[in-house]
Amino acid sequence: MFESVGAWALIGAPWIYALVALSVLLDVFLPVLPSGVLVIAAATAAAAGSGAATGRLPHEVPDILALILCAATASVLGDLAAYRLARRGGARLDRAISRSRRLTTARERLGGALARGGGALFVLARFAPAGRSVVSLVAGSAHRRARDFLPWSALAGLSWAVYSVALGYFGAQWLGATWLATAVSVLALFGAGAGAAFVMRRQPA
Question: What is the DSSP string of 158-179?
Answer without folding.
Answer: HHHHHHHHHHHHHHHHHH-SSH
